[in-house]
Automatic annotation (TrEMBL):
Species in which this protein is naturally found: Streptomyces montanus
Swiss-Prot/TrEMBL keywords: Membrane, Transferase, Transmembrane, Transmembrane helix
Superkingdom as given in the UniProt entry: Bacteria
Family: Belongs to the CDP-alcohol phosphatidyltransferase class-I family.
Any one GO CC term of the record: membrane
Name listed for the protein in its UniProt record: CDP-alcohol phosphatidyltransferase family protein
GO terms of molecular function: phosphotransferase activity, for other substituted phosphate groups
Biased composition (Polar residues): 208-220
Biological process according to GO: phospholipid biosynthetic process
């Protein structure tokens, strides 16, 4: 069955995320995206079927890991990477063909967590049987625990950020009712939609749009300013404290790589691919877990600074309300 599928360049634009993990950008997308185009053009395979395929390959990888011998470790690492390629393909096929569903997203999430848990236990159990070293028991707990902690932390941070944005939007609606008809935009959304933008330039634009000038403005200038979106930057303090971050972020985003360089994806690849391939499971797991914790703590610190920006933003609304009332 042939479908009317666009050229590969257009498929990349539709299916590949504007920001993604460096492992995905460099080692997965170059393989997955052409396969997605072929799958969509010549088969009737659905995204959910691809999700099942990725999960079954993950179980096969776990079976290889459990055997413990270095040859099976290599086989397990290769199969795990194939499983991850399929795992990336299901969402791409869904975006390309419009077959995505809420249940499919749930299935993908649950299978990912089960795959990490099963592979982590199987890998460490195989090495424990091979060496009789109890450190592998603790590493199994660490792998499952870190993966769980990462998703709990990610969910809670998302909830807090959503709450802050919701409160700010509510204040803007109140301002509109008070004859201030400016639209609202968040800096992180602008940068996400335009990853090639220069961050420092965007900040200057945001400052010029949202600044409260001390000079008098004409009625026409006031009306024009109201037509422009009011840009809220909840990461302003973080950027001011770490100017090097701006340059690094701009460079990485031009290559579609997000600044969270060691996320759950890189953690998994370190444990289930790098470690087995090098027959250095203990070392790879410890280094990957340590780097994951460092980046998770950096995200928490960034959230702390973001809450301060949120407080300042809310205070600015209060001052504006008092000024307009006067």
């Amino acid at each position: 069955m042939r479908r009317d599928i666009p050229p590969l360049a257009e498929v990349r634009r539709i299916t590949e995320k504007k920001r993604d993990a460096w492992w995905t950008v460099l080692l997965v997308d170059p393989v997955a995206t052409p396969l997605v185009r072929i799958t969509a053009m010549r088969t009737k395979i659905t995204p959910n079927q691809i999700t099942w395929g990725a999960f079954l390959l993950g179980l096969a990888s776990a079976a290889f890991f459990a055997l413990g011998d270095w040859r099976w470790l290599i086989a397990g690492a290769i199969v795990y990477h194939l499983s991850f390629i399929l795992d990336c393909m299901d969402g791409k096929v869904a975006r390309l063909t419009g077959q995505g569903s809420v249940f499919g997203a749930w299935l993908d999430f649950v299978f990912d967590r089960v795959r990490v848990m099963v592979c982590g236990i199987a890998l460490m159990a195989g090495q424990y049987q091979r060496t009789d070293d109890t450190v592998y028991i603790w590493l199994a707990l660490a792998v499952v625990g870190l993966d769980t902690l990462r998703y709990i932390n990610s969910l809670e941070i998302f909830k807090i950020r959503y709450s802050m944005r919701k409160q700010i939007k509510a204040r803007v609606r109140e301002a509109r009712r008070a004859q201030n008809s400016s639209e609202l935009a968040f800096m992180e959304d602008l940068l996400r939609n335009n990853p090639e933008a220069d961050v420092e330039q965007d900040l200057r634009k945001a400052a010029s749009v949202s600044s409260e000038g001390a000079t008098e403005t004409s009625p026409q200038e006031t009306e024009d300013s109201r037509k422009q979106p009011r840009v809220i930057d909840l990461h302003q303090e973080f950027r001011h404290r770490f100017p090097v971050y701006l340059r690094a972020r701009s460079f990485l985003l031009r290559h579609r790589i997000r600044t969270h360089l060691v996320s759950g994806i890189e953690f998994q690849m370190g444990v289930f691919i790098v470690g087995p391939l090098l027959d250095a499971v203990i070392e790879a797991t410890i280094v990957s877990g340590g780097l994951l914790l460092v980046f998770e703590l950096a995200i928490i610190y960034k959230l702390l600074l973001s809450t301060r920006d949120f407080t300042r933003t809310i205070d600015s609304f209060e001052r504006e309300a008092v000024t307009e009332a006067a």
